[in-house]
Each structure stands twice: as C-alpha cells, then as structure tokens.
Amino acid sequence: NCLALFLSQRSFLGFASFSIRDLLRVKEPHVSLMLCAQVSKVYRFKTEDQRWLLVREQMSETPLSFSLPKQLLSLLTQEHTNRYEVKELGDLSPHWDGLRHDVVSHCNHVTGCYQELLAELEKVSASSCFKSSTSKSDRHLQFVPTNLHTQRMEVTSPDSVWYDVITFGAPADHHQAFKHGGLKKLLRKHTNLRESVTLKHNIVGCCRLISIISTLSGLALLRWSSGSQRSCSPRLDTKKSDVSSYFVVHQTEQFVHALKEELVKCALLEIHNQCIANANSSHVHSNGLLCENCPADQEQDGGRHDTEYDDEEWDRVWVNVGKSINCIVAMVDRLQQQEEQTVMSPEPQEGDTNSQNTGDGKSRLRVLIQTSHLLPLVVTLRDCVREAVGKAQVAMTFVVLQEAVDVTVAQGPAHIAQRRHAVFSQALSAVVCGVMLKLYRGLEDPDFLRQLHTVGVLAQFESLLSTHGDEIGMLEDMEVGVADLKRVVFTITEAKTEQPDDLLPTLNGTWGSFIVEVPLPPETFSSLPQELKDGLLIRVDPVLFNIGINQHQSYAERFGDCSLQERINQQSCEQGCLIANSETMTELNFLLLLSAGIQSLADLLSSLERSIEAKKRKNVEVLWIAAKVCRKVNGVRLTSCKSAKDRTAMSVTLEQCALLRERHTLSQQHFSTALDWMRRCTPSELPQCLAPKAPRRHLYPVAFLLVTSHLLVLWLILSLVILLAKYQ
C-alpha cells in the first residue's frame, strides 16, 4: 500500500526497481522455495478509464536448473548399470555374443561419462543455480538448461492477477554442435537400424514375467509335493489339505496365466525369425537361446527346410500344464473321497491286537496305492512345468538382450543417445518449473485441480529460432526434446517435512517412463481432491510452435527452406485440436474451466489453423493465437530462442503489454510507452541504463571506403588537409 501510494503521487509514467528481499517479497511460501535471485520492477500505467494499473514484473532463477539434471543423470547411470545383467546369460551364438559385447561396452562408456558429468554438476551447483548463455557449449553443463528464468507479471487493479512465462534457451546440445544436423536428422539417418518388434516398451513386463514364472513354478512344485504327501497320509487333516490345495491351484493358475501372455509368444516368434536371419552363421545352443527348429540344425538333422513357425507349439506347452493340474486335482479329490469312506468304516477294538495290526497294514498299503497313483501325475506336471519355464525364460532373456541391443546399438552411436538425453534434460527442467508454478497458483482453484486429474496440463513451447544455419539443428533438437516430454507424468505427494529440500520435486522411473513427484506440505496436501491424494498421474501434453523472426529467417524464406517450421506448426496445431476436442475435455464442461466459452476456444483454434495454412512470412500471428489458446486452457507457457535473450525478451514484453491492453484496459496511447519502459533494460542493468552514456564516435568516412575507389581518394585528400591544418 505504501508503494502504491508512492507511485500514485507521481504524474509521470515510469518504473521503480527493488530487490525481492526488501519490499516486494512474494507472499507465496511454495513459490519462493523454487525461485532464487529474484529481481522485480514496478510500473504505474494509466487505463482507458483514467485509472492506474500497478504492475510488478518479476524475474527469477530456479534451483531446478541443476536439481533435475542431476537426478536424471543418476537414473540414467543406474539404468545402464542394470543392463550389465546380460553378462549372466551364459554362452550365446557368435552373433548375439558380439552384440552383448557391444552392449556392455556401450554401458561402460555411458556410465563412466554420466558419473563424471554428475560429479562436475555437484561441484558447480554448490555455488550457483544458473547457467549463462556464454556457458551453453560447456561439456560439463551439457544437461543444464541455458538461461532458465521465470518471468512473472502481477497486475493489481484492484485484484491481483499473475501471468507466468518460462524463458530459456532452446533445448539443444551446443557442445556437440550442429555440423551434422540436429537430433531429428541424426535419428532419421539410423532408421535402417530397425527396432525390436517385440519389446521396446515391454521390458518391464519381461522382468515381471521372469520373476513370476520362476517363483510360481518353484512354489507350485513344492506345494504339490508336500500336498501329495499329506494327501497320502493315513491320518489326513481335511482342512489343512483343502487350504493347501487352494493355494496350490491358485498359484498354478497364476503360473498358467503368466505363460499365456502374448509377450512370450511374440518373443518366441522373434527368436525363430532371428534364427532364420542368421541361418548361414554358426550356432551355439548351450542354453537354448536360439530356437529348436533352426534351419541350420534342420539341414544337419535330416535336410528338412520347413522354416515356418508353428505358433500353436507354445500353446500346447502351457495347455499341457493345465491338463496335468486338472488330472492331479481330480485324482486328489478321488483319493480324499476314498479316505473319507475308510475313516467312516468301524475301527478295530483296542484289545484286538491282530485286528490293529491288520488295520495298520491296510493303511500302509493304501498309502502305497495312493502314492503310486499320484506320483506319475506329479512327475508329468513337473516335466511340463520345467519345459514351459525353460521356454519362457529363454524367450524373456532373449527379449531383455534384444531390448538392450535396441537401446544401445540399434538407435545409433552413443553420442546420439547422449545428445538426446541432454536435450531432454533441458526441456524437462523448464517444463517442471512451469507446471509447479501453475500448480502452486491453482491450489485454491477447484476447477483447475479437477482439470489436473481429468485432462492434464498443456505445455506450449514458443520457439523463435530461424530455419537457417545452425539454428536448423537447434530446432531439430528441440522438436525431439519436446516430443520426449509426452512420456513424462506428474504426481502429487505429501512431503515428509516442510524443509526446503523436502519440497523440491523428485524424478523417478526409467527412460521413456519418468514420473515427477511434486511434494506439498501436509496441510496443503490434505485439501486436495481425493483423486490427487491417491496418486493419480497428471499428464502433460507438450506442443511446439516456431516462427523465425530475425534477419536469418528472411534469408531462409527467400532463398532457403522453411518446410521444417511448417511441418512442426502443422503437427502441433493438429495435436492441440485433438486435445481440446477430446471426450474428457468435453465432459468437464468448458464453462467451468475457461475464462471464455467453448465457442471462443473453437474460434481460436480455427483462426490458428487458417493462420498456419496461410504460410505468410514471419507470421507471428501463429504465436499470438497459440499463446491465447494456452492461457484459456490453463496451460504452461514457455518461450525460447537461441540463448533466451534478445528475441525472447522482445516476445515476452510484447505479450505482457498485450495482456495489459486486452485484459486490463491499458490505454492505447500508453501502449508503446509501456513497451519501451519494459524493454529499456533488465533490473540488473538498471544502473548502466540510467547512467549518462559517452558520446558515440561517428566513423562514417570508413563506411564510404566500401562504396567506391573515388571516395577513397577523396577521403585521403581531405584527411591530409585536416592533418596539415591541425599541426599548423
């Protein structure tokens, strides 16, 4: 209030700069934890109805710039370390043994490199939480986003409204540079190295099946053995036997159900295909890794050349297990009925020793008969289970190896994978920062909280890169990095304490399935909807729009190629329309979620489509409409250029003034003045901006030297005359 009164007593349009630690401390405990080095500027602008707007512009760094890359490096290091298990596969064919050697070598290289980078980041993050644009090519800062800031604007007239934009340098690997293009081009070159058809996204399922099959097979055989012995006991405990049989049947049903997984059948088919592909090479079958009906073996065994895969063979294997179980269950039931009938028969008298001995003999004879009936069935079941387990484990082991090969070899050299990880790390840090700011601002908005667990959050990346020179590679990197964010989800957890370290986000999972956990204090967490408290995953839908605006884009539009930019914008527009028109979004009733009606959003999407199809030069209207759509659906705005300096500053300040004009009735005659004040200088450069500047030296004669040789002669004559006059 004192600050507002101070500004209202001034008749000029201007700004004041303060440190957040002094007057303008943010009264948001959650937000302040993820911001650092905060600086603010305060303005007073006049509206159309002659009122005053109090505008506060705040720029902050964030500790997430280093926190998330360090966590990502740790997870990637652990993931590559886990792939060392392929060493334990035993003897393989020469082909697969060579691939295994490549996998181990790749994992050793990546693990050592990432451990080194992590150690360097630990040293740097101890004294800083920011990566400047001059360090964007540093190897040890490869995973850290460049010039990451939160740009926030608070408007008070009379209520307080916040507008947030995340600014950062385009996520790209400047260390490896762009001599051979960006990620999109590099990945396209390696499409001839095929990806596995069985398992790329099912490696977790493979490990799960291996564990289930091994555990259940052992338990099933153990319980059947013990169960059969108890069933053959002359003094049978019916209740214990029923319980034991129930667990045996239940576990065996789980075992059979695991064997029926389509993943096992696909893996066996893949093994068969690999055998055919490697038929001309030598084969080693020490552990059965290659298929039994290998063409090379068929030629040796009898000249058979039938290379068709019998997909019913595996079905017969697990069906035999089920039939064996049914036979044993039926036999046990029959023996139990006979046991009950025997127990109901009259028992011999105690004094009759001969009768008692005769009864014991009959019991022993009955045990032998029951054992003779059950033992062959149990042995048959054991053989069937062992056959099924052997085939299933071989299939899953092959798939694990193939997945490791696909990730480490078939996707290209190690430097491409490292480039992709670095680009993803930069994009992840920025989007997590934006999502957390949006979450903290919407904790008291029930409509936004409902949107989180039903629809998710839209993350709109605004890029100002040109399609000329190295910036083409940067845009290709950014396209892949933004697309990889589709596999990232968020979840809200309850913090253990309210200490700052316990309220920072944590990253879990593996490549392709990361989960970001956002902790909240217990009091805040308890007020969330039940769905969010239960750990429901929050989806993030990233879209990228790019419009080059500098002089290099002019060259590209006249003499180069803009197809990359056009394709990116078209795909993002289609994706945005799908998200907005989804059934889930429609069920939510837009009238509750959006500041305008559903028709207004539809009009904006139609305008966006028309603007993209128009293909105008430097069509910045695409970016303006995309930003409006993002704000209407409570999305996260992220703006970037090469280093997040000049072009990004121009875009953000123009957007802020446009918001003041459209939503807060900023006077049109003061629009340009307000824009000039915002662009005058950053708060850190304020003393230099206000200080008197030295007069510029005009060197116009030097410019004329490039025009013509006659002017050069004239300039030399005049300079000689001036020099002589000066010394006289």
From TrEMBL:
<keyword id="KW-0378">Hydrolase</keyword>
<dbReference type="InterPro" id="IPR039034">
    <property type="entry name" value="INPP4"/>
</dbReference>
<protein>
    <submittedName>
        <fullName>Type II inositol 3,4-bisphosphate 4-phosphatase-like</fullName>
    </submittedName>
</protein>
<dbReference type="GO" id="GO:0005737">
    <property type="term" value="C:cytoplasm"/>
</dbReference>
<keyword id="KW-0443">Lipid metabolism</keyword>
<feature type="region of interest" description="Disordered">
    <location>
        <begin position="338"/>
        <end position="361"/>
    </location>
</feature>
<feature type="compositionally biased region" description="Polar residues">
    <location>
        <begin position="351"/>
        <end position="360"/>
    </location>
</feature>
<dbReference type="GO" id="GO:0016316">
    <property type="term" value="F:phosphatidylinositol-3,4-bisphosphate 4-phosphatase activity"/>
</dbReference>
